[in-house]
From TrEMBL:
Protein name: phosphoenolpyruvate mutase
Record keyword Cell membrane present: no
Keyword terms: Isomerase
Superkingdom of the organism of origin: Bacteria
Family: Belongs to the isocitrate lyase/PEP mutase superfamily. PEP mutase family.
Any one Gene Ontology molecular-function term assigned to this protein's record: phosphoenolpyruvate mutase activity
Native organism taxonomy: Bacteria, Pseudomonadati, Pseudomonadota, Alphaproteobacteria, Rhodospirillales
InterPro entries referenced in this protein's UniProt entry, alphabetically: ICL/PEPM, PEnolPyrv_PMutase_core, Pyrv/PenolPyrv_kinase-like_dom, Pyrv_kinase-like_dom_sf
């Protein structure tokens, strides 16, 4: 018997352009980390309806994190996993979803390599890449100055941005500059100077990163940046200042909020707990209430039953 899958899908061109369209329609977007097709399906379909006339609350797109992509493969978050390897995973995510994806591009590598990767991501249907202004062996930003990390010079990073912009083939694709000044305790003045220089070099947006537990410094940065650029998209990643609600970040002037690693972090805990229960009890009965039922998992993907 012929099985016809539901008509759902999107072309690479339409997906790539969808992030810019969303930024024109909505003040601020919610973006969720997805490291696999199943995590992306969950982020794509999950929506909360409060029963009023207000539209449901949902995630607007996906974040492909170098940290979670590397961790899932048992590799360090040091740019050991190259863009071509990560694009294979993105293609699998794109097979079963329709929402836009923002790529964590780490430092972007050498400008010439970055230009080639921009073309690859653009052809794939990725909407944006975020590159950070650090140089040398990449270390996770939340380590701050606990490990040796060095910012790239402003002229060198401007050159990388300009090289990437010159390489892209459409106006849809976005290159967003991630400023590490607050991470490395260089201060807001340095962060602002770098951000203005990067926008002048062609960056389509700015991501400001902080590892402080409070959101004060990113709010101050947003206020000062907005006095120079009203419409350039501002991005934040509230992993450290996780107590700050989305609505406050939106009011502060941010246009994209990325929840950058939570799908993988939560799935690891769940898998560890279930595996421990089975070892402890010599059977899986005690772990069943922590697992999706077999009927539910068989019904999860169209065409399985």
């Amino acid at each position: 018997m012929l099985t016809v899958l539901p008509k759902r899908g999107i072309t690479a061109d339409n997906r790539r352009a969808s992030l810019r369209r969303l930024l024109q329609r909505k003040t601020c977007l919610r973006i969720m980390e997805t490291h696999s097709p199943i995590s992306a399906l969950l982020a794509e379909t999950l929506a909360l309806d409060d029963g009023t006339a207000a539209p449901p609350v949902e995630y607007d797109g996906f974040w492909s994190s170098s940290l979670t992509d590397s961790t899932e493969r048992g590799k360090p978050d040091t740019e050991a996993l190259g863009i071509p390897s990560r694009v294979l995973n993105i293609n699998e995510i794109f097979e079963v979803t329709t929402k836009p994806l923002i790529m964590d591009g780490d430092t972007g590598g050498q400008p010439e390599h970055f230009a080639m990767n921009v073309r690859t991501l653009e052809r794939t249907g990725v909407s944006a890449v975020i590159i950070e202004d650090k140089t040398g062996l990449k270390k996770n930003s939340l380590l701050g100055n606990e490990v040796a990390q060095q910012q790239e010079s402003i002229p060198a990073f401007r050159h990388k941005i300009a090289t990437g912009k010159a390489a892209q083939m459409t106006d849809d694709f976005m290159i967003i500059a991630r400023v590490e000044s607050l991470i490395l305790d260089a201060g807001i003045e340095d962060a602002l100077a770098r951000s203005l220089a990067y926008v002048d070099a062609g960056a389509d947006g700015i991501m400001i990163h902080s590892r402080k537990k409070q959101s004060d410094e990113v709010f101050e940065f947003a206020q000062r940046f907005r006095s120079h650029h009203r419409d350039v998209p501002l991005v934040c990643v509230p992993t450290s200042y996780c107590q700050t609600p989305f609505e406050e970040l939106e009011r502060a002037g941010f246009n994209i909020v990325i929840y950058a690693n939570h799908m993988l972090r939560s799935s690891y805990l769940a898998m560890r707990d279930v595996a421990t229960e089975i070892l402890k009890n010599g059977r899986s009965l005690e772990a069943e209430d922590k697992c999706l039922s077999m009927n539910d998992i068989l019904a999860l993907i169209p065409g399985t039953r």
